[in-house]
Write a structure and sequence with these properties.
Blueprint lengths: L2 H20 L14 H14 L4 E4 L10 H9 L7 E4 L7 H19 L4 E6 L2 H11 L6 E7 L16 H6 L4 H7 L9 E7 L17 E5 L11 H12 L1
Parallel strand pairs: 1-2, 1-3, 3-4, 4-5, 5-6
């Protein structure tokens, strides 16, 4: 097992413990042994370099910053400082163009606060639409090193038919002009590294393959529900590794 795999496994186990504690359940965390002091030093130095990028988390429809409790725990356990983890909140019932413009401002504020030239974005569900519009239409890809989309509604979902009284849901419905705008031509513009995680058991993103982006590393998860992704420490650990790469 590589040092990174061992580190990720350790982080995932500890994250599960933290999550169980939050729900008044007992748990325990394991630790991986280092082969030698020099090797541990090298791993520590590499971790410090690879986890310095600020991460901006973008929730889904009706979500909030609280959706990212498990994700932030996993990222911290994989080397991130809590001061480099940020959650963007937006109006789920408004307009995703406005929400994307708000994300642009939020990213600029994070860059100014941390001194970083770029951030990584991790999104979930409708947060995929907000993120894609920011990166593609507003040119935000120049400020984003990595984009990780978890069960993103990147090509829409027919489930949005249940809330079409809201502009955001109209935009999230397959075939909308909003979807056409963010999927026409290059779906993964710029030098940003893109990856997605999706599952046939999602139940909300219909079809579940909607999350996939042409030009991205698209990862099929055997069976995970739409909300279950938010506490799936295995997937979150993979995403932390992806952002650190």
């Amino acid at each position: 097992m590589s040092r990174r795999s061992a580190r990720r496994l350790t982080g995932a186990v500890a994250a599960v413990t933290a999550a169980l504690a939050l729900f008044s359940s007992a748990g325990s965390a394991g630790a991986a042994d280092r082969a030698s002091a020099p090797a541990a030093s090298v791993a520590s130095d590499a971790s410090a370099l690879s986890t310095s990028t600020p991460v901006v988390f973008v929730h889904g429809y009706t979500g909030s910053a609280s959706n990212w409790t498990s994700a932030m725990s996993v990222f911290r356990l994989n080397g991130w400082s809590g001061s480099n983890l940020f959650a963007y909140e937006y109006n789920s019932y408004g307009n995703n163009i406005t929400n994307a413009q708000g994300l642009a401002t939020f990213v600029n504020n994070v860059k100014a606060r941390t001194g970083a030239s770029k951030v990584a974005i991790v999104n979930h569900s409708m947060g995929g639409l907000v993120s894609q519009y920011y990166l593609k239409v507003l040119g935000g890809n120049t400020s984003v090193s990595h984009l990780a989309s978890i069960a993103g509604a990147n090509h829409g979902t027919t489930f949005a038919g249940a809330c079409l009284i809201y502009t955001t849901c109209q935009q999230m419905y397959p075939g909308s002009s909003f979807i056409a705008q963010i999927t026409s031509g290059d779906e993964t513009p710029g030098s940003t590294r893109y990856a997605t995680w999706y599952s046939a058991c999602d139940g909300i993103i219909l079809p579940y393959t909607s999350t996939r982006l042409s030009g991205a590393s698209n990862n099929l998860v055997a069976c995970q529900t739409h909300i279950g992704f938010l506490t799936d420490t295995s997937v979150l650990g993979d995403i932390a590794d992806f952002v650190a790469s």
